[in-house]
Amino acid sequence: MSLAIEQILNGLQFGVMIFLLAAGLTLVFGIMGVINLAHGSLYMLGAFVAASAAGRGAPFVLAVLAGAGAAALAGVVMELVVIRRLYRREHLDQVLATFALILIANDGVAIAWGKTPVRMDVPGALTGAVTFAGLTYPTYRLLLIAAGLAVAAGLYVLISRTRLGMLIRAGATHRETVAALGVDIAKLNTIVFALGALLAGVAGALLAPILAVQVGMGEQILILTFVAIVVGGLGSIRGAFIGALLVGLVDTLGRAYIPVLLKPVAAPALADSLGGGLSAIAIYVLMAIVLVWKPRGLFPVGSR
Amino acid sequence: MLTFARASVAALLVLSLAGSAAFAADPPPLKIGMITTLSTAGGYLGEDMRDGFQLAIDEEHGKLGGVPVQVIVEDDGLKPANGKQIASKFLLQDKIQLFTGIIYSNVALQVVPDVVEAGAFYVSPNSGPSQLAGKGCNKNFFVVSWQNDTPHEATGQYAQYLGIKKMVVVAPNYTTGKDAINGFKRTYHGQIVEEIYTALDQTDYSAELARIRAANADGIYYFLPGGLGISFLKQFTQAGLKKTMKVVLPEFSLENHVIGAVGNDAEDLYGTAHWLEDLPFAANKKFVTEYIGKYHREPTPYASQGYDTAKLIASALRAVNGDLSKADAFRAALRKADFQSTRGAFKFGPNQYPIQDWYSMKVVRDPKTQKLQLRGVGKIMRDTGDVYSGACKMT
Amino acid sequence: MTLALLIALPPLAAVLDQPFWVNTVTRILILALAAVSLDLIVGYGGLVSFGHAAYFAVGGYTIAVLAQHGIDAALIAWPAAVVAAAVLAAIVGTLSLRTTGIFFIMITLAFAQMVFFTLVAVKAWGGNDGLPLDARSVLPLVNLRDPNALYFVCLGLLLAFVALAAQLVESRFGMVLRGARSSERRMLALGFPTFRYKLVAFVVAGAGAGLAGALWAEYARFVSTDMASWTRSGEFLVMVILGGLGSLVGAIYGAAVLLGLESFLAGFTEHWMLLLGAILLVVVLFAKRGLYGWLAGANDG
Amino acid sequence: MADTVLAVRGLRKAFGALVVSDDVALEVRTGECHALIGPNGAGKTTLLAQLAGEVAPDAGTIRFGDRDVTRLGPDARARLGIARSFQITTIVADFTAEDNVALAVQARAATSMRFWRSAARDAALRDPARAALVRVGLGPRANTRASDLAHGEQRLLELAIALAQEPAVLLLDEPMAGLGHDESRAMIALLREIKPAVAMLLIEHDMQAVAELADRVTVLVAGHAIASGSYETIRTDPRVREAYLGDDG
Q1: Which of A:99-118 have CB within 8 Å of B?
Q2: What are the residue ranges spanned by the domains of chain A?
Q3: Which residue in B32, B171, B40 sits closest to B107, CA to CA?
Q4: Measured between CB atoms, does C135 come within 8 Å of chain B?
Q5: Which stretches of chain A are DSSP H helices?
Q6: What are the residue ranges spanned by the domains of chain D?
């Protein structure tokens, strides 16, 4: 029983981290209509900068802020130099241009930090595990869940209660109206993009202590993120949240239970490797099922 | 008409661009084609290997075995198709007769047959696939590192030696991973309570770690190359599992890059390797000092393999005075393995894969510097070849 | 003139002692075939498939697996590869074509990933080590072992497919397909069951990629899982966009330029990806209709 | 046989709490123009979309002749002979005017799964297409890209496409929208000319056009058909004046 709860917590933790990336990606798509494949590169940058800062003795919180700030700054530059020119272009052009950005970012990071994975430790106070209700769970993972949920709540408040949020919501469905209100759309776009980049940076920095911080780490998680926002319905923060949790849970629980469930019905060696194969494709099956059932995701937004 | 002209100009341009690297330099130096992985997440392995190889050339000021050489390095991007393309360029355009460099077996399996069929030589610094060790062996194919199964056999042996009763084994769900686990099982005879296969692009291992905890084993072996292993080890330690389980690893998951990336999490890990930084051989001491002096980073097995590969090639080039058209003599010289390996005794088996010693090692904290270091503990296997060589009928 | 150059290439390469040219261009021709087939659905049907590598891989693996079982007659193996890829495309298309836009991109990617992970896990087909072919298939009258013969077979099949695709997009069928790209609602209102048209196009494109995969297996005498990887799908898309959407021939230029650049830059510097990225970025930002638009001398407007 | 070609009974459609069609009934007969008027947001376009099959009703039936077509998709209905024009011009922008009409001709033909012959040189498509263009006065513009046509010309092209389908029922969604005075006159004349051969359902804000074309008028307010009758009856109906015409003054 406690194992099941642990696995659900694991799925939740993975899900909220995916959400941090998914939120930015879905906002940028919802408001600017841009598919940004280079979102994972901002996440990578956040991780590298945080690791560097921590390596130079910065306290953990400062290191995370440095990573997030660097990603946001890179986001602003990216928006001003490249993304801005893609708003009115076809999705395909956006895909190609942001794919090119991935190549540049990966090689750039390799030049700046080298190809060897970089180290970042879990802060000393958080290395242990917490025991509650007969369950032992790593403190740092609990922190990740808390941080992810806090950011989600913060985003909810930002979107639903503030003027910026109002503009973001309006911008997703009624671009012209927002422009007519006298709002500087270009500035709004830059702000939204920087916000998305910031969240990606936060995710990178928070995960840096438990992941290999290395070139190419952005693409590993990028596909999962896209699956999450597509399952949730593009452009919807709520959809991204549900989608990310679904992906996190399906992926984790698939890895936890598919091999176990197969054991009684298949030869052990086959069960292990077949189970591994099936759990690797579980999220893709999830996405295919959702899209066959609801071609615009679980929470479709407006008409686009 | 203009459009056609432009189109064909473009086409010509592409062709000449693709080929122009070849027009750059003419011999005297003997060209060695190095196809390796420099980009992608696995790029640092190729970088180490290349730098180790280069170190041997620098020792001789641009020569190997007294023969001036020029190494042409190209990145395969971890794509077998790219490796193949580079190989045909090297073969057909640059007329290269001596190849090395490939890190990953899936690339090697595509490239090596092309190279040896063309009558050229391939000396592998890092990949010894089983397909090319038995029936598929070839007289022009040499492996300096190990047969792919052997590091895992050594690790199994060590786990056995450490008296671990119940093990969990983990590997990615692909052929190399399954081969690794089979290799481990060949020498480990305790109980394997859980066999876990992970995805190739996995970053989060929490689900697996919960399964591992539930399995109540007292030891774990995993083969997760590069970043996969780093992520896994960090999360494994985080989950507090290191307190209850002994971790026994093949050298891929326990080398200086890994230790650098995981920090204290590496403490008290066990492992096996065919080469160690602190092996007491003169050739090794020289290599380690020079490598750190030149590249300002700790050497890895990949670096030592690059260096040894270059030294082996040097010994054979000296024997034929750089004339590769004396293929039989060159081959015979390679077979002799008349060079000082950084890992001590080294000779080739009948399939031209190495026969060598395997060491056990442990991560310990240096009492003076407080730095974590890999220290040799002892020999775990002596003069060990591989199980496939019997099937090799060299022609 | 480009065609004349392509036909003259093998003798020219022989005279200049550059056999590598034939090898390189064969590779370009095969991948161009896959790119052209993708352009058929992306450029004319507006169906951005991010899983085209799956059909390429299925075509290739069909050849290799048949060869594994001793079937090496090209006249059996090649059609089998085409049919296998077409069947897969029919299944994926049936399930995917209800979605549009980025949803379609992602669902095609999902199916391709399933193919990829399956190939990685099936040990009988070599898993991630891939599967070698002992020899090229046997074609009556033509010796495929001769690089020049293989070259001309690839060239011929590429031209045949381009001709077929060009015919297709100009036909009644093609009019409906292109119409649906720009206004699906209108086509439905006219009475066209657009789903069927898109599905047929999707299957033809899958078959084309399957043929390319089969040729790749013959050319490389090896199939491996990276044939099905999502980066491979991405490369096909880059070729199509680079060449210019909806021009068929453009995809060939796209393939040539991408592969040429990759090969040149990788020979030139370790940081070739940085340069490649910068070049792609400049092209997409400034040459709006792709290389074909530029080559055709058209104004970018 | 009664002349009723399209008959709607008890049609109901709601988007969440918003009821857009509330128990709507209407009929369209051959040779007759049935106009559908009502204030903005009354549900006219959604009603038309249900007739065309783009939107599925929650309840009610739609009969075409003696066949129930309520559950058929738009393409199936089009093949039976229900054609529509769009309020916002929906043509294939990068085809020529003639290509656009040729598609409609092609749609009528038995199958378009023809892969070999070039459609551009297919006289069986081109001749009727050109005839339809000539009929709406676009003959000289046949080879112009649709996106290069002026707005009024695009509206005419919409009509030519619908005509080329040779439908039994023609659903017109504001054909006069955005037209100048002279263009409107020409459009009305054209519609009068083709009226005898088809059953016509017309959504229109231009009351002049409704007066000239409609044999019967149904007034839709908030999804509800509040009145139906001749233009004169409707014009004088107090409920209608209150709900609709009153607004216009």
Answers
A1: 106-107, 110, 114-118
A2: 2-214
A3: B40
A4: no
A5: 2-32, 39-55, 60-81, 91-113, 139-161, 163-173, 175-180, 185-207, 217-232, 237-262, 268-293
A6: 1-88+168-249, 90-164
Q: Is B211 on the interface with A (CB under 8 A)?
A: yes
Instruction: Output the pLDDT for position C297.
Output: 57
Interface-testing mutation among B13, B92, B116, with chain C (most C C-beta atoms within 10 A): B92
Give me the domains of chain B, ranges plus CATH numbers: 30-146+279-348 (3.40.50.2300), 150-273+359-384 (3.40.50.2300)
Would you kindly state where each structural domain of chain C is located, as residue ranges? 25-228
DSSP string, C22-58: HHHHHHHHHHHHHHHHHHHHHHTT----S-HHHHHHH
Place of tokens 């919807």: A236
Could you please report the per-residue DSSP string of D145-157? Answer: BGGGS-HHHHHHH
User: pLDDT tens digits for chain B (395 residues)?
Assistant: 444 445 555 555 555 544 444 444 445 799 999 999 998 888 899 999 999 999 999 999 999 999 999 999 999 988 898 999 999 999 998 999 999 999 999 899 999 999 999 999 999 999 999 999 999 999 999 999 999 999 999 999 999 999 999 999 999 888 888 889 999 999 999 999 999 998 888 889 999 999 999 999 999 999 998 889 999 999 999 888 999 999 999 999 999 999 999 999 999 999 999 999 999 999 999 999 999 999 999 999 999 999 999 999 999 999 999 999 999 999 999 999 999 999 999 999 999 999 999 999 999 999 998 899 999 999 999 999 999 999 999 87
Does C186 sit within 8 Å of D90, measured CB to CB? yes
Instruction: Tell me: ipTM over 0.95.
Output: no
A138: which chain B residues are within 8 Å (Cβ-Cβ)?
Answer: 238-240
Which residues, in sequence order, are CB contacts of A180 under 8 Å at separation 6+? none
C236 → chain A, closest CA residue: A96
Name the strand (E) or helix (H) holding B170.
strand B166-172
The number of angstroms, rounded, from the C-alpha of D11 to the middle of its chain's C-alpha atoms is: 18
Q: Please give the structure tokens belonging to residue B250.
A: 């093949």
Q: What is the CATH superfamily name and number for domain D1-88+168-249? A: P-loop containing nucleotide triphosphate hydrolases (3.40.50.300)
H-run or E-run covering B82 = helix B80-88
Amino acid sitting at position C52: H
* pLDDT tens per residue across span B195-212: 999 888 888 999 999 999
- CA dist B149 and A2 (Å) reads 38
- Cβ distance of C183 and D165 shorter than 8 Å: no
pLDDT score for D90: 83
Residue A265 — φ and ψ, nearest 5°? -100, -10
Residues of D in contact with C176 (CB under 8 A): 103, 106, 112
pLDDT of residue B26: 47
